[in-house]
Design brief:
Helix content is 31%, strand content 40%. The chain has 121 residues and is α+β, with helices and mostly antiparallel strands. It has a single domain, classed as Trna Endonuclease, Chain: A, domain 1, CATH 3.40.1350.10. It has a five-stranded mixed sheet with strand order 1-2-3-4-5, sandwiched between helices. β3, α2 and β4 form a beta-alpha-beta unit. It is globular, with a radius of gyration of 14 Å. It starts with a helix and ends in a 7-residue tail after the last strand. 25% of the residues are buried.
Length: 121
């Protein structure tokens, strides 16, 4: 597996553990539909379903990892979330969050959780 894929998987595991420590229940990891993928889908409680995009960077890059979630990525996440919601017959409260994970030499340096990061149009 390439370095960036390993970095991404490590970041997703860190993010999932972080959210579980907050009491969230991870429903699905790496949900795929068509060309879209959602890193984590989690229940905050029985009424709020959160679609989480995890962005991981190692070293000092230009800008934060969360800056990589541009409008095109947001649209793809929203379409993929819609497919998931249809599959589970869910039509209630949702939210889109970003978890930014910063690693240095493979070790966690910082984790930032941006709640309600965007609202798809």
């Amino acid at each position: 597996m390439s370095d960036h894929l390993e970095t991404g998987k490590k970041g997703e595991s860190i993010a999932a553990s972080y959210l579980e420590q907050k009491g969230w229940r991870i429903a699905v990891r790496n949900f795929r539909a068509g060309r879209g993928e959602i890193d984590l889908i989690a229940w905050v409680d029985e009424r709020l379903l959160v679609f989480v995009e995890v962005k991981t960077r190692s070293g000092d890059g230009f800008g934060g990892p969360e800056d990589a979630v541009d409008g095109r990525k947001q649209d793809m996440l929203a379409r993929t979330a819609g497919i998931y919601m249809e599959q589970i017959d869910y039509d209630w409260e949702i939210r889109f969050d970003i978890v930014a994970v910063l690693l240095r030499n493979g070790e966690l340096m910082e984790i930032r959780h941006i709640e309600d990061a965007f609202f798809p149009m």
